[in-house]
Give the backbone structure.
Amino acid sequence: MPFALLKYGLKDDFPFEKDPDLPLPTDLKRHYDVVIIGAGGHGLATAYYLAKYHGITNVAILEMGYLAGGNMARNTAVIRSNYLTSEGVSFYSESVNMYKGLANEFDFNIMYSRRGQLTLAQSEAAVRGFRQRSEVNKHFDGDTDLIGPDDIRQLVPTLNMNAGGLPVLAGLWHRDGATARHDAIAWGYAKGATQRGVEIHQQTEVTDVIVENGRATGVKTNRGQVNAGVIIQAVAGRSSLLAAKAGFRMPITSYPLQAMVTQPVKPFLDPLVSSPALHCYVQQTGRGEIVLGGGSDPYPLYSTRSTLPMKEEVLTNAVKLFPFMANLRLLRQWGGIADMTSDYSPIMGISPVENYYLDAGWGTWGFKATPIAGKTMAELVASGGIVPDLIKPFSMERFNRFVQVNEMGATAASH
Amino acid sequence: MKILTCPLNGPRNINEFTYGGEVKNMPDPNECSDEEWADYVFFHDNLVAVVKEWWLHSPSGYWFIAERHTASDEIIRTYDPREIFNERIEFSQVGV
């Protein structure tokens, strides 16, 4: 093969460019029926479902950086639906179900792997909370049970059952818990959307939102002005900043969330394991690396820098759970900006500005909701602004009515 | 170790402090509508800028104000809240 390689090395047309996954960049048009701000998982999924289910293809996705380079590249790829409220469970279960069939739908391997998620109860209060969550899950056809220490030992033989001096009393065993390759999901949606006519414009930053008489009519970008029938903002980590350009404030505070992976080791851990008491979650990827995450930073910041105190906190607790990991080396670490809402639920649907829709407030629960967020946001646009039942509870206006959807206790590591 | 200078206790490890939210003008709880109160409690500017924030030095129970840049994390100035608030707000009548 060296000669073939040399031949391509000297030629202009490389073989992989003949059938690219994504079309080459084009000029921005003056008008689109739908402008989606943010080419992350949610923006791409919304465009995909708009084109596929609703035949709306005059759609542009504007992205200030590059495709799926924000929080879609910075999450820990956990898929689960073991939440607490009826609203939360029915929403996230739908997403978990969609993930199961996504590789077939795309004809593109998303490396979906159903592992089950085990959340550890290390106090009597946690056992009571988990019993409630398992019953709510079962009510919505979820496969979730409260299991005892013997079952936990069988599932995870390497787990320290007295981690941090807090004995493991029970576990919330969510068999639908899964993981998948986050980049593949973004590329699957991007490929499917562009094949149907959607345009993705990278390095295209929205500098202003044009609002006339309370109605959004277009956006100004670093590549000129674009008029739009409908605008969707799907910019996790910058939601408040973009909303300010459209002229309103949001019930969001943005915190960095840090995560890290170790060097690869032999497969030892099948389920995703989370300890709310120790603010730590652990999972092993298909490559053998161990992904470690914890709570968000203690105060708000728009910087993805990493800090030593957060590393020390997460790693101290991870070693309490799995003492043998003390000998491992860290391979990579990173941070993302999490748009936290006070009830730990998203903000979806209409905004104070007409024709300007919100997909925001995704805190630390955005990745798992990617398919259902895209599907429901597409329905919202296609119906001309009728909010689908599944996302009605997540309207921004719930805060004005003091009707919150409290999922704080059901986040992976209580923040 | 990141250092925050407490107006009462001097420079200390930021781990000793608790963030307390943006400094905002509180509407009169006796007079304002539910919507105004919700706006005060839940909605934030959350911008990239130098912002005024409440901080608590946890071991000494002392609340103060810091001016901090929300992208560079640079702490510009810290000071006693009496620089801004000079009269006590009475809550005893709220909801009666």
